[in-house]
Amino acid sequence: MSESGITTQPSCADSFEVGALPVAEAREKIQSSIAPVAGFEKVALRAALGRVLAEDVISTIDVPSHTNSAMDGYALAGSELPVDRVTALRVVGTAWAGKPCDVAPGPGECVRIMTGAKMPAGTDTVVMQEQVERDGDAARIGTGHRSGQNVREAGEDLAAGAVAVHAGKKLAPAELGLLASLGIPEVKVTRRLRAAFFSTGDELRSVGETLKEGDIYDSNRYTLYGMLGRLGVDVLDMGVVPDTRDALRQAFHDAARNADVVITTGGVSVGEADFIKETLAELGEVSFWKIAIKPGRPLAFGKVLDAVFFGLPGNPVAVMVTFYAFVQPALRHMMGEDHFHPARPRIAAGSRVKKKPGRTEYVRGYLHTDENGKLVVEKTGFQGSGILSSMSRANCFMVLPPDCAGIEAGEPVEVELFEGLV
Ligand code: AMP
Ligand code: MG
Hints:
This protein is of the alpha/beta class. Helices cover 19% and strands 30% of the residues.
């Protein structure tokens, strides 16, 4: 349908979805009109998991702090390594992790050493114990070793004075460990975001209520709770708001006053949205977009009072797709996160995927290894925008770009995984 309400038949790729905003453009418009929130807090290291670092952390020490052995074995000077035949060296001491050996081995001597132990003075090489024959205080070592082997240099992980973790990094388990290795007990992170959300629609009942004829349960508030929770955003669930002017005005007021971001689902498609549009025009500045995306065409974005506003479509899968495509990158930017570019590996499609050119399609996919051991991605059945079960069966989206006119079996397709290691 064009704006005038006249249905036009798509004749070529460019004429499809006339007037619809490309996904990338919508994302840019959103990203350029929001800013990272001011405000930070100091939190204990463990509590920083999933939070965004507010300032660079500079390493105050070398990690490791001393040159140490990477193996259990024998420490010696590289110049003592046998050249052409097995040679016996005298073992003159033992170095343990945390208990260094004060004896500096001289010519023809070595020190028994454990993994992590400080290298004794005069040594720079470790021969692993499996390659040494021990006979009393003699260690018989063969040829083929390299001077400097099996040693970890002081500062080789982090050097004193270098940036250990950059501001804008979302802290994962590796960073918690890294910061702990510097002896840092607390870090400065950006403050938590708060998102308020509610559903609109007279057909919606909340979990625990009884369904009357024509009613459905509100599932969007639960997917939103899950997606926001995983992002580390504090949520304010405001329930189902009746489609009346007063109720909506009150709800938008309360939401915007108590949160950084307000998210609603439903009621933004053309023909609906009368009270929502009216209320939003009164309280803020919101654009109603038709986006070249499937599912999830209608989207409202702007401001309500001082809060950022997203009006997502009502259909449950459209809610999830538009959240991941637009809301998630926006919230990550607001939380101060830098460089958020989800990996999009290209995987062979297991079977044909039909598509019309002109819009970006997020197809629910199941990435798996087929019976021939080949990695393939398969559509998870019926793709209706209300079919949440096909979302639940999926473990990724196949993201088909606007110019794509379908994928044949075996052709590569970009995939966005639902789960990551961190
Ligand atoms: P709307 O955008 O309000 O026209 O809604 C589109 C479709 O999504 C309708 O079938 C609604 O019943 C459904 N829908 C809207 N909101 C929700 C919700 N919170 N939970 C489940 N389905 C919803
Ligand atoms: Mg509705």
